[in-house]
Write a structure and sequence with these properties.
Elements (H helix, E strand, L loop, with lengths): L8 E6 L22 E7 L3 E3 L2 E3 L8 E4 L5 E5 L2 E7 L3 E5 L1
Antiparallel strand pairs: 1-2, 1-7, 2-5, 3-4, 5-8, 6-7
Length: 94
């Protein structure tokens, strides 16, 4: 099964974060912050959204930084994804 986003939505998957600090301390999952860097998995077509023309600037495979608590989290085939609006993407990481 695949996710096909609509309008200005983008499907992202969080990039795994390190679980050990630089000093060697292992962090429990509950002590870690929600990752903000994610990889784009699918991109909607853009078009007219709320009466305005929206052009999509990200593409599949881009690494992006999203707003900390934005989007809707979904689980599909044992994988966790977040669906965000393109406006919730703050930057592309190169």
């Amino acid at each position: 099964m695949t996710i096909k986003p609509l309008a200005d939505r983008v499907v992202v998957k969080a990039v795994e974060t390190e679980e050990t600090t630089k000093s060697g301390i292992i962090l429990a999952a509950s002590a870690q912050e929600k990752p903000q860097i994610a990889e784009v998995v699918a991109v909607g077509p853009g078009g007219m959204v709320d009466g305005k023309e929206v052009e999509m600037y990200v593409k599949v495979g881009d690494k992006v930084i999203t707003s900390k608590y934005s989007g809707t989290e979904v689980k599909l085939d044992k994988e966790e994804y977040t669906i965000v609006r393109q406006g919730d993407i703050l930057a592309v990481v190169e």
